[in-house]
Amino acid sequence: MDTIQIFEAMILGVIEGLTEFIPVSSTGHLILARDLMGFKSTGNTFEVLIQLGAVLAVLSVYFGKLWHLVTTLPSSPRSRHFITGILVAFLPAVVIGVIAHDFIKEVLFETPMVICVALLLGGIALLIIDRIPSQPRYTDIESYPLSLCLKIGLFQCLAMIPGTSRSGSTIAGALLLGTDKRSAAEFSFFLAMPTMAGAFAFDLLKNYKSLNSADAVTIGVGFVMAFLSALVVVRSLLAFVSRYGFAPFAWWRIVVGSVGIGVLLALR
């Protein structure tokens, strides 16, 4: 096994964990960092499969709440409503993800300019949305109306374009639909669980025959690093957002997108 490749997998795992749950596009950052380092993965599976490490970080932080939801499901209408809402929000990503999977992996994942433009435009949009004065109508994720959940799920599908950001599109959509910043970020956490687990399972099913032992090692290293770094983010993000909003992430996107566009144009 190439030591350099292991080190690169560690770096990419950290990038995945740090960026998955903040609205800056983990996939966009992974692809740009991958291309910069010259890292190669079979069928672009590494970038998708290590996301499960970040999912497990959410599961570990919210285990108590998840266990409560599961154990009270038969008796609590509130628990049933919340779980139904997450599944409703997840549904659009299932449909579009299955239909567009090959195009996303084979075309969009290989087009850095698309990623940089998405980072830039998404940053500008997030900055505008963050500054819009609002009086939130929805602040409790467990009582979000199912119609609201479906609309947020549709916004999440924008993240099929690398650089858009799954959490960014989900949070921005939720804010535009009348939620507060903290609950928008928290709902994004819960929606990430089935979405990213589903992407992991679907991608593994399509590509497992082409993977080898070397792929398994690099994916394992990236997985562990994604889990550890995502723990830090999940435990601190809600407090950060409540205090500072989403503007710092918006400016980061604008800077990274602008620099990326400049570099790509200079290399032509």
From TrEMBL:
| Similarity-based family | Belongs to the UppP family.
Its name, as the record gives it, is Undecaprenyl-diphosphatase
Instruction: Give the note.
Output: Bacitracin is thought to be involved in the inhibition of peptidoglycan synthesis by sequestering undecaprenyl diphosphate, thereby reducing the pool of lipid carrier available.
Per the UniProt entry, the Enzyme Commission number(s) are 3.6.1.27
UniProt cross-references to Pfam families, sorted A to Z: BacA
Provenance organism: Aureimonas ureilytica
What membrane topology is given?
A: Multi-pass membrane protein
Q: What does this protein do, in the record's words?
A: Catalyzes the dephosphorylation of undecaprenyl diphosphate (UPP). Confers resistance to bacitracin.
> Which keywords does UniProt give here?
Antibiotic resistance, Cell membrane, Cell shape, Cell wall biogenesis/degradation, Hydrolase, Membrane, Peptidoglycan synthesis, Transmembrane, Transmembrane helix
Single Gene Ontology MF annotation:
undecaprenyl-diphosphatase activity
A GO BP entry = cell wall organization
Q: Where in the cell is it found?
A: Cell membrane
Provide the organism lineage as a comma list: Bacteria, Pseudomonadati, Pseudomonadota, Alphaproteobacteria, Hyphomicrobiales
Q: Mind naming one GO cellular-component term on file for this protein?
A: plasma membrane
Catalysed reaction(s) here are:
di-trans,octa-cis-undecaprenyl diphosphate + H2O = di-trans,octa-cis-undecaprenyl phosphate + phosphate + H(+)
Q: Which residues form a coiled coil?
A: none
List membrane-spanning regions: 48-70, 82-100, 112-132, 144-164, 184-205, 217-238, 250-267
Q: What class of enzyme is it?
A: hydrolase
